[in-house]
Amino acid sequence: MREMWWQFARAGVRSSLGERGGIAKEGQTLLQTMGRPPVLLTSRLMDLGVRALGRDTHYPVFRRHFHAYGVGFAKSGTTSLALMPHRKFRTQHESDQSGLVAALAKYAAGASDAADAGDTKRAAAAESGLLGYLERADQKKGSLEVDVNFVLALALPQLLKLYPRAKFVLTLRDPLGAVDSQLRFLDHVAKSEVTTVDSVLWNTGCSKALWQWMWGSVQAERANEERALQRAYPDSWPLPVMLRWWCSHTLSVLDRVPPRQLLVVRTDALSKRVTADEIAHFLGAQAADVNPSHGFRTPHKTTRARPLSLVPTAHLQSVLDRELRLQPRCADALHKYFPDDPWASDAAAWIRKASRA
Q1: What 3 state SS string does 229-270 have?
Q2: Cα 168-342-251 angle, rounded to 5 deg
Q3: Is pTM, for the whole model, over 0.85?
């Protein structure tokens, strides 16, 4: 199996010479410095290897020690989750994001058109296309043990069809913390002048259409109380929209994944040994093969003060209360996973806690 991987990887590196120097350089460095298949092998490199070897549609299949997906909302510790398993396991974080979003957008459009026309055959064809993409993507990535990507939450029914025994880990941050972290990340992106996966997902038209189809309307007026926030973070969405996305994402995972196949882990617990042990037990791995991690955080030096501190506390509380009333099961989930933390649903307490962090 190891030789099969090297065959594909070397072919990919060789074929990328003269075509994409960056990929070639990255691949050569990986091949020279790592004594095992690198966990960050790109789908692009695998594609090049397949084409170079004359195998247009067949990718190597690797034996999994376990099979899991990380489907926590963006900025909930998903990068840390991908880094927790030992290096001998194959893990990736938000790989082939543009391809996944395009496949989901195509499926969403096809399914919507089929529903409007009452055409079950078109609906089945749309789902078949998404299933095919997910299966090919899994093969291209090398049959990962842990594939971490918040967008995969939009394809949970299809993933469960393809892999009925797969397990899912939902990293969960409190709603205000999730929104605040998203805003700080946008600020970090703007200051670093780097186009990232997250910035593309927040702002591309196809992504907005996709989110709207899957999670309902994302339209909301920008309240006057949020004008200071908008000036400081011009790429941000109205707070009701961002909180609604958090609720919808959380509920979609809790509702769709069978309880025995789902582990919910709080973001603030990722650095604890007991959490790593819990994840290892859930995956079926040895405790020593999963390590605590929560090191990938937006650098404080590149961010301003807490974004939500720019919003009057009364307005922040009003928006949060309204969204939790609109989705009462979301409020139930918040109380279930943050039972002893009043700051999770109290804006004033959250601001005080955040200011001390």
Answers
A1: HHHHCCCCCCHHHHHHHHHHHHHHHHHHCCHHHEEEEEHHHC
A2: 30
A3: no
